[in-house]
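Checked the freezer inventory, then went back to the computational side. Two predictions to log before the end of the day. The first one is the construct we discussed on Monday; recording sequence and tokens without edits.
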Amino acid sequence: MDDLFPPFAPEPNEPKPRRFKPVPVRMIIPNMITLMAVCLGLTAVRLAFEGRFEPAVIAIIAAAVLDGVDGRVARLLKGTSRFGAELDSLADFVNFGCAPALILYSFVLHNLKSLGWIVALIFAIAMALRLARFNVMLDDPGRPEWKKDFFVGMPAPAGALTVLLPLYLHFLGFELSPGLAPVALVYMLVIALLVISTVPTFSGKTVGKRVPREYVLPIFVVTVAGFGLLISFPFEILALLSLGYLCAIPIGANQYRRRAKAEAASAPVPGDEPPAP
């Protein structure tokens, strides 16, 4: 009977169990920043349902700042990864899709009951679709270099900060009564449509890589002045920035059309190639 069930002995050359390599700290730091942004977005939702709308808005703004920092830190530390890119997209959906929608619903849209909730859902889903489209376009190798100066539709952080304009105005003394809830609803729907639209908006990602030496000190002064104004008059500045951004969308779209026409005019026409020698 012992021959039927011989004892198992592993082969001497059997490969050892696979062990995962340690992850460098430089790849963990950007993801930690992203997770802190998610914590701020979720905390903003809690603050909104507690009726503390000012700190809720500040939490969304802080999340937007961290969203702009994590990618740059990853590139600076050479810690970019596919995992970090996917985590960043999920964080953007929470911070700039779900959180603003729930904040506005808790603030004023709940007065419209189911209709207000439907528009909040539309905004959140529009943000998810916009982020998915953005990720797909990153993998397009045939995209012209000049198009990197433009986003397709309103970017997620801008959409989140702009849609909160009714709260900025409320903090400045413009009371948003329940009777004005339809105005906030229409405004939120317009921002949702801009988010998923194909309207080109200026990104500014490739601007400022090189700054003329004579502009360095004025830029420092303007930056300090702007930061001081934002700290002293946060909601006034945010309201002005939101209105200014909305007014600048047609300017960016017009600039995009001009550059597209210039590219089309400079492209060779089929059949006009010089004959081969």
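The second is the one RB wanted added to the comparison set:
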Amino acid sequence: MVVTGGTRGVGAGIVRAFAAAGAHVVACARRPPETPLPGVDFTLCDLRDPPAVRALFDELPRLDVLVNNAGGAPYRPLADADAERHAKVIELNLLTPLTASLAARAHLARARGCVVMIGSVSGTRPSPGTAAYGAAKAGLENLARSMAVEWAPDIRVNTLVVGPVRTELSHLHYGDEEGIAAVGRTIPLGRMAAPADVGAAAVFLASDAAAYISGASLLVHGGGERPAFLAAATVNKEKAEGR
């Protein structure tokens, strides 16, 4: 199996989960991991280079699972950058999963395998400061549903819609420990996801237990976000807070 962007953060959590389940995992990214992951092969690849992506998959003897995890975006209000900069965000988060999926298609069809897209709650709600990223993730979820129809019955395609995840880069998005804890308190389960939570969900979607699941979006967000109007309203506060 292949995990794109599988060297740190959510990607590393996914890689560890599949390795623990006994899979032969190939992680690909533009940079090698700072600490090699046990039992995982690493391949250097710029996923924005379609010929390089095709070459990577052509060299594989077999492929059962592709996890399109590579992506991300810095905080950047729309008016603070030109269209070309925002287009690069869309390329990384939408076009590179398409490129990898197309390159992997023949392998996956022979193995009757599956694709797992790593989506985001940013694609299902307003995402101020990461609008291009949110738009790309919305497109990714739709792409997965269309792909699931076009490539059935040989290949299953699903999306994990992921909420905030605590990784080694969380400080870039949420600030210090106080900020991270405050964000966690906005989530009904009381904390951000760990990379292992996303990895476990990805393993499930790739497993025989999900053999009849395709074109689906599985929410991995700890219950979502508490509606802001509940905190602003001046009635029913005690009931809303469970007292």
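For RB: The CA atoms of residues 7 and 237 lie 44 Å apart. The longest helix spans residues 83-111. Let me know if you want it refolded.
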